[in-house]
Amino acid sequence: MKLRSMIGALSAALVFVSSASAQVPQETVAPKAPTAAAVAPPAAPAIAPALTQQDLDAWLDGYLPYALASADIAGAVVVVVKDGQVLTEKGYGYADVKSHRPVDPKATLFRPGSVSKLFTWTAVMQQVEAGKINLDGDVNQYLDFKIPPYDGKPVTMRQLMTHTAGFAETIKHLFPADAKALLPLDKFISRWTPNRIFPPGEVPAYSNYGAALAGYIVQRTSGEPFDQYLARHVFAPLGMNHSSFSQPLAPNLLAGMASGYLRASGPPQPYEFVGPAPAGSLATTGDDVSRFMIAHLNNGQFGSARILQEATAKAMHAPQRQYVPPLNGMALGFYHEDRNGHVIIGHGGDTVAFHSDLHLLLNDNVGIFISMNSAGKDGLVENVRQNLLSGFMDRYYPAPSPVLATPPTAKADAAVMQGTYWSSRRVDTGFLRLLGLLGQVKVAAGKDGTLVVSAFKDDSGAPLVWREVGPFIWKDASGKHTLAAAVKDGKVTGFGEDDLGAIMVFQPVPFAANAGWNLPLLGGMVGVLLLMLALWPIQALVRRRYGQAFPLSGRTAQLYRAVRIAALADLLALGGFVIIAQAAGTKLALFDDPLDIWLRLLQLLCLVGLVGAGLSVWNAVRVWTEGGRSWWAKTSVTVTMLALVAFAWFVFSLQLISPSLNY
């Protein structure tokens, strides 16, 4: 299942495992049009085989080489651990396409993105053990600046670890262009605190800033730079000799770094620097990650080394709260992804080029890690990694899908669900509020009481159809995905899906921000302004052709021209903001200080547009109150005025003009 509607960037947040030797890929010609089958693993057998290296290697070899080639992904590393040992670790494809350097699970470094957070949260729990951090105390006691309270309530470390501190999403400085643009951790954290848009502890809203703040607190309470703390207290005890949070990466490690790609058939991407380093700057090998997985599966112990006490590790893995029952909730830093009757905790991670997942089957003592160095064609990397977990679970830990009856309330509940929603993980400051307008999710009810949610599609891109199986609980046709809603006083306050509900929910969009009327208004405004600007020179040419003088003079002529100049400024400003927002998918390095001057120029154009809106109102009043003006003149000046006033609405509602350049 794919979530495709939220302007890919906001999912950029920021994982994997080992075998004795890298597998050198055979040359494979990818099909012209990858289908769902191209990235789906072989069907599960009727009787579940034992999880052995021989069977697992055969299954992986039957799935991943073709899946990677079909999706245009350069390479992958996969590690599976079981009962305290590496069961298999394999490399597929290329670490570097041009040189045909194969992926070596022991030597090739990947960027696991937000899987890095699991190491940060582990460091936090070490400091909790040491008595230096209180999970439920105000984090301001550990900081050299102040996080403002929300309705008098402070932020706690537990809320940071469960992504419920209430922070809005941030984009600026997320992926600096190079080492020179990289801010030190203390500067990144303290220069701007994102808006808190939810009461603490109430709404899951995934936050890179929150994880970086936790890492900074570790730095403060331990007295060691964050990257050095991880190296000494996590990597060294586990023997993770090819792992580092440091940026830039040390030359000896950089030599083994896999190249990252948007697509394997395209050029390599530059090394990705991560602004909130504790949230995603780790570089590591599959073999190194195997040690971390084994340590957590053994409740903090790897061989003779212990990174957490058993009680601490168990507390870290335990569920904290389900925000939309019965969907999975967060543990402390890990999110629960229980399926097929098995308790699973894990985390995903994405940079622009690298895409990873880590899963721990706690009661089965099994861990899985995958990391890939390409986004692939049409973002098919998401299918590959999701299908890897689902295929693995259905093969080795299958569970029958119970036949659940549709309750008689299905049609009524579906009617209540209908509407427009947006993610709790959203930008709330500055011009990137535009993403919140463009990325809204529509829920539609069928006549039979089923639901279609625009954000959720299958591997082929077709919308999933959801059938109610309990009060405000739905299943897709496969029975493997669950959607559920929280309802209060007969109204939906939010809904989630089992792959996402631990870290974000979808909430009803307030009327003022609803795309249902804002987008048609935006389209109509653009159409009117384009038509007006197109007619301006055409009318001048026609008058010149027939030798006619411009019919207006004095103040009326000045207002006529000023309104059209304002319309041009409106379109240039809006176009500029849209172009920049679209770059959020693959060019996150753009969102840094050098962009500020361009944002100020666009804001200046917006100011011209606002002045023009005022002048258009004045012009309309003059035309309507002057005698002798035609109905055509009155109609055209009114439509023009409405378009310019609509632009003013978008300037204020989307914060296209803002004193601050933080977003």
Quaternary structure: single chain
The biggest beta sheet reads: 9 strands, antiparallel
Instruction: Output mean pLDDT.
Output: 92
The number of E-state strands comes to 20
Unreliable runs, pLDDT <50, ≥5 residues?
A: 2-38
Specify the number of helices. Answer: 17
Shape: globular
Our measurement of the CA-to-CA distance between the termini, rounded to an integer number of angstroms, reads: 30 Å
Helix content: 25-40%
The assigned structural class equals alpha+beta
Rg over CA atoms: 27 Å
Strand content: 15-25%
Model description:
With 663 residues, the chain is α+β, with helices and mostly antiparallel strands. The protein has helices spanning 53-71, 116-129, 157-161, 185-190, 208-222, 226-238, 251-254, 277-280, 286-297, 310-317, 381-396, 410-417, 433-438, 515-546, 554-582, 596-625, 631-653, and strands at 2-3, 75-82, 85-96, 101-102, 260-261, 268-269, 301-302, 305-306, 335-336, 344-350, 355-361, 366-372, 419-423, 441-445, 451-457, 463-470, 473-475, 482-488, 491-497, 506-508. Strands 1, 13, 14, 15, 16, 17, 18, 19 and 20 form a nine-stranded antiparallel β-sheet that branches. A seven-stranded antiparallel β-sheet has the order 4-3-2-12-11-10-9, sandwiched between helices. Strands 5-6 form a two-stranded antiparallel ribbon. The radius of gyration is 27 Å and the shape is globular. 49% of the residues are buried.
